[in-house]
Sequence to fold (223 residues):
Amino acid sequence: MPVQNKMWTLKLKTIFLQSWKTHIPKSSTTAATNDIKDILRTFKKYGVRQEGLAFSRKITRSMPIWYHRHADKKIRKLNHSEASICLKKNHKIFSVGEASDFVIHLGNLNHQPIANCECLPCVTTRVDTQCHNPNRCMNRAKDLLNTLPSKWDPRQQLPEDYEREQGAVGDYDQWSYFDPTVTTKGELSDSLRTFTHGELCNDLPDTRPYDGLNNGGHRWVLF
Fold:
């Protein structure tokens, strides 16, 4: 992990969730570094990475916003501006969910796109964080979120918003229920897969019901 910038320790989490790469000097021969090398080689060999058709809003919100693994590369240019430094140092915003919650204030009816906006969210933000320009920081957080593809943007409509929970249809133990949902749920660790290969697809599948198909509470039961 790079150590030149003290802020790195605050915004870097793991190479599986972010776009940075770790570096271990070849000259290092300690047992700890050798173990790390072996672990990283194993992860690479077996294709450990985040993969799935769709992810729950809980998972997408839990992702780190800084160096987001699946964001457009232009997010790197947004990491070191004055507003970005303020977001990290004063606002303590590190996750996609925290950035999303912060951006909501831009929709406040009393908000004005000026540094000294007197709407309640801006006034509260200045008092709580010592930020001199909440509007600027909110817009920078929005810029960061706008680099996310649809699969990883919790502001978008996600498949879990219209997927039905598969309930029981009888007391027959021999029945197996087909789960038509495509959303990976749980924690961030549940988004990791092994034996992956090829290009990642970050487009959301369109599984919305249409023309009565897959609608009306119908369930498929396999015998």
Remarks:
- Residues 49-156 form one domain.
